[in-house]
Amino acid sequence: MDRSKPRRDPYQRGQYPAAPDGERQFDELEASSLFCPKCKAAVPVRKRLLLVLPEGERYEYLCAYCSTSVGRKIEEVKNKIQLIQTP
User: Fold this and answer.
1) How far apart are alpha carbons 81 and 46 in whole angstroms?
2) What are phi and psi of 60, to 5 degrees?
3) Positive or negative CA dihedral for 26, 29, 33, 35?
4) Could you give the C-alpha distances from 49 to 43, 46, 75, 77, in angstroms and in order?
5) pLDDT reported for residue 63
6) Whole-structure pTM over 0.85, yes or no?
7) Which residues, 6 or more positions from 77, have their beta carbon under 8 angstroms from its beta carbon?
8) What is the rounded distance in angstroms from the CA atom of residue 19 to the CA atom of residue 86?
9) What's the sign of the alpha-carbon dihedral 86, 59, 19, 8?
10) pLDDT for 56-83, tens place per residue?
11) Measuring CA to CA, how many Å separate 82 from each of 55, 57, 73?
């Protein structure tokens, strides 16, 4: 076995250069499967809109088999909602 190269710790921070300013690799992540405590397994999920808030939209992830809530997420909106109040 050739051991001339030292082994790198894959969990070490800073081993990859950061993305330049303004460039992001991911804007939003979307869950496709999560652990369901009722089914006791990783299962596919459905995404359901719960609330529309000024800071974003709140979603709930539901188990595709038993409809148990398995997670939540807030997607931030690019344009902030402004509430207009009249006296």
Assistant:
1) 26
2) -125, 135
3) positive
4) 19, 10, 10, 14
5) 96
6) no
7) 55, 56, 57
8) 45
9) positive
10) 899 999 999 999 999 999 988 777 667 7
11) 10, 14, 22
